[in-house]
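Hey team,

Filing this mostly as a record. A colleague (T.K.) asked me to run one chain through the structure pipeline before their review meeting, and I want the input and output archived in the tracker in case anyone asks later how it was produced. No errors, nothing strange. Just documentation.

Input sequence:
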Amino acid sequence: MRKKILATSYLRRNSPMPSSRPLSIFDLDRTLTRYGTWSPFLLFAARRRAPWRLAFAPLVLVLMAAYKARLLSRKRLKQAMQRLMLGSAIDLDSLTCLAGAYAEESLARNIHPGAIASIAAERAAGRRIVIASAAHLFYLEAIAERLGVADVVGTASIWHGRNLTPQIAGENCYGKDKRLMLERWLAGQEIDRADVHIRFFSDDLSDLPTFEWADEAVAVNSSQKLLQLALRRGWTIYDWRQPRSARAGNRTIGRTALG
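Output structure:
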């Protein structure tokens, strides 16, 4: 069961009444999930497909250090990690099996029960559910399917026929690029932004461009920086990380703010 710590209406000033079905957009990693999904997917896939590739794990750590030192972009980091752990190509049938098995494991071990309850509540309220994540579509879609979510916006890959390559098509769905990709998704769905109410759920300050684009912001399992910003701006705050007994002891504070 989710626990609302801070309630808000956080609506745009002078905005027209929405006419399209409202959207509830969820980030994936550390929002719906307990921990990130990219590195665990690569380890999961390597163990099942080519265990000898686990020997490259120390090189992955070196790549991560290079990223932290700003020697690599997130996009280049993810491409290099995939090449090491999955190889230069993987066929569609093998990938489909791996993604499906990983999605099943994620649902069993990595999805917050509060996230499942929140998705159900948003859907019951008549809202269309979207998952928007930097996760690659080839496993994001499998996780979303098991959560009953049909609409996803994520990081796309370049394919050669039926073979997946490590190359990312376009941009990694992260930060400002996530907002741009959501805007393109709306256009592709023939939804006018002015006609739809958007509620956005995320755990990280990197999603600030999307938080500010949405009509209603929900900070979930927040980092300290995001939590402080959410408190200042009067955003809704959820924490699904706490044990049920701790959640039951939380106090609900009602507060409204206009963005």
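Quick notes for T.K.: Residues 117 and 170 are 33 Å apart (CA to CA). The chain has a mean pLDDT of 88.
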